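Worked example (supplementary).
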Amino acid sequence: MERNIAQIALFAAMIAALGLVPQITLGFGVPITAQTLGVMLAGAVLGARRGAAAAGLFLLLVALGLPLLAGGRGGLGAFAAPTAGFALGFPVAAFATGFFVEHVRLRSAGLAAGLGAVFGGIAILYICGATGLSIVSGKSLAEAFTLIAVFIPGDLLKAAITGMLVQALAKVRPQTLAWHRDSASVTQTRL
Amino acid sequence: MISLTSPVETRAHRWPAGLKLGALCLASTGLFMVRDIPILGAAAVAVLALYAAPGPAFLRAGLRSLRVVLPFVVVLLAWHAISGDMWMGLLITLRMVTLIALANLVTMTTGLEDMVDLVRRLTAPLRRLGLPTGVLEIAIPLVIRFTPVLVARAETLAEAWRARSRRRPGWRLILPLTLQALDDADHVGEALRARGGALGPQQQE
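After joint prediction of all chains, the assembly is encoded as:
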């Protein structure tokens, strides 16, 4: 119980820190912050429910007036902005990422996390983001999609990084990944 | 951690947070139903007047926090100009900016403690249903405390990287950062347990 709360809080802080640290800005022309990488990691490491709780806690702090969104934005205004769909999609994306890694059993934890990040952190998150953008901007969903598609390559990169990080994590700290430990024990009992 | 609350003390700082939030919800719903540019323009001017009332420092801070939506305003106006319905574009951007400005206004005039207080009161019905909402009151300060810690740690890691390599550090810092955060979580979890558990001694009986 206490450890779960601490992990949720620490990952909410990770999502915030990754959006604020300029050293981890991924280049490639369009400046991409690592904030959604934090969301993908929260889902992939903590699993669906605790990952979504971490992202939700992060959003609550943004709503309370802390400038934690990438670029130092925050406050209630962030939920009326064109990017509000993305912000509100964070918990959904973390849940989807966690749901994927918990239910799609793959031998490699890194591969499962990477694919989970593509599913949750890109597919699901972009549906939320495009819906928000089309509501705020009065454009159709398809038009909103074309506008945000520029960011997909950067997010694919982040999903790949999530996979690599979780692969490394499974090696050096396997007790953290509850979902992977379960699947590992399942294969052991089968043997 | 610096909150977005304005240091310029206004009269609105003393109003109850629930009232301000309720007014914001009503005003936002109202603005979403309006389809006339003159009415929206009047609303935008009224919001601007609210920003100007506490003095120039407050107005400057308010406009600075609105600057981040400027690229979107440009893109939306350009898009509508190309597709030929400039009025629609004007209406949408005017509404968007007014909504964001209003919401920012509430954030700027409400302190963090008032907001946390409001959360506690809003979650009171859930508490009566038996949900452990006290957990939120532990988690919120934890995040506020650990975000600057993690940022500082990422900067230390980046410095150490630069001492060894001429390449940019980039994403490679995230693995040690995550590992340290997980260790922290273990320590904090143990510390919470040692101090009577997350729910506090009186609620655990």
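Two points are worth noting when inspecting this output. Residues 2-182 of chain A form a domain with the Arp2/3 complex 21 kDa subunit ARPC3 fold (CATH 1.10.1760.20). Chain A touches chain B through 60 residues (CB under 8 Å).
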